[in-house]
Automatic annotation (TrEMBL):
Residues 543-612 form the PEP-utilising enzyme mobile domain. PANTHER family: PHOSPHOENOLPYRUVATE SYNTHASE-RELATED (PTHR43615), PPDK_N DOMAIN-CONTAINING PROTEIN (PTHR43615:SF1). Gene3D superfamilies: Phosphohistidine domain (3.50.30.10). Residues 1-24 are annotated as: Disordered. It comes from the Bacteria. Residues 7-19 have a biased composition (Basic and acidic residues). GO terms for molecular function: transferase activity, transferring phosphorus-containing groups. InterPro entries: PEP-util_enz_mobile_dom, PEP_Utilizing_Enz, Phosphohistidine_dom_sf. This is PEP-utilising enzyme mobile domain-containing protein. SUPFAM superfamilies: Phosphohistidine domain. Pfam families: PEP-utilizers.
Length: 619
């Protein structure tokens, strides 16, 4: 969900965000539009309509320019959000999202229901539909988990044909009739259909989970208008969610290595493949490897990024980071450290805050409404985080693996030179390549793809590299009037103040040594900054440093045991960095907008998570 974008009419300034139709193509990226389908683009024929809207860049989910195939993740994610809002649950004030790609980056504009009569009509539908979900949440959530796991199993079971010299003889003798040429087409269609279905499941309960929390937030603010969002968030903290489980598995493996007497070997390893070769020679080593396998399926299907890009590999694909963390945990356990998250302290603080504010609410209907809203938000809140592991991490890890199987088939027949080249073709172009391969394999003739696709892939690789060097503006079009939609504020960190800062930067304003953002997690900490722009930089993060990142991914959770505080460019009170910091008792300031561009690694900074301010203490 995003803010309702209304042209700002009360500003004394003509400052606005750039017109999307006046943005120039970065040098070296000429022809970038050919990488995407027409429905992804700002079409010249729609200039009057689209230039009049405010578009926010979704840097939280899509921080990099989209490779041509990878944009299917944006397509299906926005589609699923829209259909649940608009068609399934009939949210009274909100429809879905208009989405555009500009120089490879994703921008979104919300579609609102503005007619009061229509809002009221939709409210009747909404009450019946969402009421059913809230009343039956535990059963529906259990069913949801089963459905997602079944879809993951079905995706893994999709088999790409061998396309050998002859159709398998068993097919012929069974009189099957249908051939592997058709199997290839069906397999590709099934992969895309699976993605579409699972992302519908992704959004099935998600907005209802957020809505329950938002209802609690509004209930509290009705009594205490000045209460900070961070204080309200404390009231639902201390809830165990699946995103902490992979880190818990690393701690378990460290303890198991000590127990089995292989800790020194494990802690010294830099390559899992080499470690496995060494450990297989002993009973204890083999036992530890078996424990690794138990943890890996499914918990290491954990993307280093957010799962939306093909190059966001998982711990299972590249176990370097989890292996490093196991070694680190071995040392911490031997030093007598307690690796458990401070759940007791978090829960005690949660209960104290709830008791303090609850006592101020009059007994009777008002206190009952508070209790009901709090109880519902605690019931549904785990889903808000757990869906992320099931879909963005576990499912998407398997999705990218299945697409790489198709890429390997295209490599074998010379259509592309490397497996990942497939991601530089649009979904429709891969369908064309599949047809070409069907034709040529069926006839015994020569496919045209090997002459057609390699130069296109090479050109697009160069274009994407040029787009990565471009800095996209945070918003496009006229400035909005007021940001009032709570999820826009809490998840993305887009507020009136943030918009004002963006406008000041657009007008040439300078950033000083004080950065303002959201008070994501309470506390104050000082330390040297470590700017981490990608998962590859995590190994450089040292104990006692302040993590500064565009946004953190759930798979980064283990490093929160190292750091003293966290700062992010993007995000609001309910973003990942804020939630994890609260669970670890670390101060965090999120949604600063420009921390990674302003702070340099090694600079000493102060993170004040009580008020949402980051101060650079030296030059």
């Amino acid at each position: 969900m995003t803010a309702t974008d209304v042209p700002r009419t009360d500003t004394a300034s003509d400052v606005r965000f750039p017109d999307p139709y006046e943005i120039e193509t970065p040098p070296g990226a000429e022809g970038w539009q050919e990488m995407y389908c027409y429905y992804n683009l700002f079409l010249p024929q729609r200039r009057d309509k689209d230039a009049a809207k405010t578009w926010f860049r979704n840097g939280m989910h899509f921080p990099e320019p989209m490779p041509p195939f990878d944009i299917v993740t944006a397509d299906t994610a926005y589609m699923s959000t829209g259909v649940m809002n608009t068609r399934v649950f009939a949210l009274p004030p909100a429809l879905g999202l208009d989405v555009r790609c500009l120089n490879g980056y994703m921008y979104m504009h919300s579609l609102a229901v503005e007619d009061p009569a229509e809002v009221e009509r939709r409210a009747g539908e909404f009450a019946v539909r969402v009421g059913h979900y809230y009343q039956n949440w535990p059963q529906l959530y259990a069913s949801w988990e089963t459905k997602v796991k079944n879809h993951i199993a079905e995706l893994k079971a999709i088999t790409l044909p061998a396309l050998g010299e002859f159709e398998p003889v068993e097919h012929v003798l069974a009189g099957r009739g249908i051939t592997e040429a058709n199997d290839l087409l069906v397999a590709y269609q099934a992969i895309l259909a699976s993605l579409d279905q699972v992302w519908s499941l992704h959004s099935e309960m998600l907005n209802m989970g957020y809505a329950a929390y938002l209802n609690f937030l509004m209930t509290v603010k009705a009594h205490f208008p000045e209460i900070p969002d961070q204080t309200v968030a404390k009231m639902v903290s201390g809830v165990d969610v699946l995103l902490f489980r992979p880190d818990d598995e690393l701690k378990r493996l460290a303890a198991k290595a000590i127990e089995l007497g292989v800790a020194d070997t494990v802690a010294a390893a830099t390559s899992f493949e080499a470690l496995a070769g060494e450990l297989r020679g002993s009973e204890a080593g083999a036992a530890w490897l078996a424990e690794w396998d138990v943890s890996a399926d499914p918990w290491f299907n954990f993307s280093y990024g957010n799962g939306f890009y093909h190059h966001h590999r998982s711990w299972g694909d590249d176990p370097t980071f989890p292996l490093t963390m196991v070694g680190e945990y071995v040392g911490r356990i031997r030093n007598g450290e307690n690796l458990d998250r401070p759940l007791d302290e978090v829960e005690a603080e949660r209960d104290r805050v709830v008791g303090q504010y609850r006592a101020l609410i009059p007994e009777g209907d008002e206190r009952t409404a508070f209790d009901d809203a709090l109880g519902l938000s605690r019931v549904v809140f785990p889903y808000v985080e757990n869906h992320n592991f099931y879909i963005e991490h576990w499912y998407m890890t398997e999705f990218w693996r299945k697409m790489r199987e198709l890429g390997a088939l295209l490599v074998r027949f010379g259509f592309v030179g490397a497996v990942d080249d497939i991601f530089f073709l649009k979904r429709t172009e891969i369908a064309e390549a599949v047809c070409d391969l069907q034709f040529s394999w069926s006839s015994g003739g020569e496919a045209l793809g090997p002459a057609h696709w390699p130069p296109i892939v090479a050109k697009r690789r160069a274009i994407l590299a040029a787009l990565k060097r471009w800095t996209p503006p945070p918003a496009l079009g006229p400035a909005p009037s007021a940001i009032v939609e709570p999820m826009t504020i809490m998840l993305w960190g887009i507020t009136d103040e943030q918009v004002a800062k963006w406008l000041a930067q657009a007008a040439g304003g300078e950033q000083g040594n004080v950065l303002e953002g959201f008070a994501g997690s309470p506390g104050v900490a000082e330390g040297p900054a470590r700017v981490v722009l990608s998962p590859e930089d995590l190994d450089e993060l040292l104990d006692g440093e302040i993590l500064v990142a565009p946004i953190t991914a759930p798979s980064w959770t283990p490093v929160f045991a190292r750091i003293k505080g966290a700062v992010s460019d993007i995000g609001g009170i309910m973003c990942h960095a804020a939630i994890v910091s609260r669970e670890y008792g670390l101060p965090a300031v999120v949604g600063t907008g420009s921390a990674t561009a302003t702070i340099r690694t090694g600079q000493r900074v102060r993170v004040d998570g009580n008020v949402g301010v980051v101060t650079i203490l030296d030059d």
